[in-house]
Write a structure and sequence with these properties.
The chain has 223 residues and is of the alpha/beta class. It has one domain: 3-Layer(aba) Sandwich (Rossmann fold), CATH 3.40.50. A five-stranded parallel β-sheet has the order 2-6-1-7-8, with helices on both faces. Strands 3-4-5 form a three-stranded antiparallel β-sheet, with helices on one face.
């Protein structure tokens, strides 16, 4: 271990439930939760607000270099994302941000900065962290690595429910198309692609509730 604290990584595709599971797992273990996707979303939000061309990698990298993305630790141990001092937890979950975050995620200069920031956070906090490359790139020596997956229809159903619960009107067919495109981009991008670490434990959450998934993972963790 080169990390100072306990590090647990959960990687996997969108809709596998890894973020919700990671939050509950962190709470159960009494450690912090790092939402790495929120970092890319926050930068995307800023780029959209400034009307920066998202396919301009130089512009995105320059923007990242002049952006402050922080995580403030809350009493419950969660890390609260801020963009240049502004609380953006809700704003970064919009459909527009979700469908455009891949631009930042695929930009080498942005990823280099994000990975460095994530590693720095990992040196300061015991973490449960989820994303696409946490166990392969960011924390390759994590104490525990998990790869969460579920069949596509179940992942889509969960995403639809999440949005509807938030009061949003959802076009199910369009959402599935967007998810398929996002999967393709996640698996095939040249930097930090989504893949299972060789030593990761695979968790299929298709037929599991969030609570059941957490319990399955906890059986592997020895504190």
């Amino acid at each position: 271990m080169t990390e100072k604290h306990l590090i647990i990584t959960l990687d996997g595709p969108a809709g596998a439930g890894k973020s919700t599971v990671a939050k509950q797992l962190a709470k159960r273990l009494g450690v912090s939760y790092l939402d790495t996707g929120a970092m890319y979303r926050a930068l995307t939000l800023k780029a959209l607000r400034l009307k920066i061309k998202l396919d301009d990698e130089c512009a995105l990298t320059d923007l990242a270099q002049h952006t402050r993305i922080d995580f403030k630790e809350m009493p419950d141990g969660s890390l609260y994302v801020t963009l240049d001092g502004e609380e953006v937890a809700q704003a970064i979950r919009s459909t527009e941000v979700t469908n455009n975050t891949f631009y930042a995620a695929r930009t080498p200069g942005v990823r280099t900065l994000m990975v460095d920031w994530q590693k720095t956070i990992g040196q300061k906090h015991a973490l449960v962290t989820d994303g696409r490359d946490q166990g392969t790139v960011v924390f390759p020596k994590a104490n525990y690595k998990f790869y969460m997956d579920a069949d596509f229809e179940e992942r889509a159903r969960r995403r639809i429910k999440e949005l509807e619960d938030a009061g949003k009107i959802v076009d199910a067919n369009q959402l599935k198309k967007d998810m398929q495109e996002r999967d393709q981009k996640d698996f095939t991008r040249t930097v930090g692609p989504l893949k299972k670490a060789d030593d990761a434990i695979v968790i299929d959450s298709t037929h599991l509730t969030i609570e059941q998934t957490v319990e399955v993972i906890l059986k592997y963790i020895k504190m």
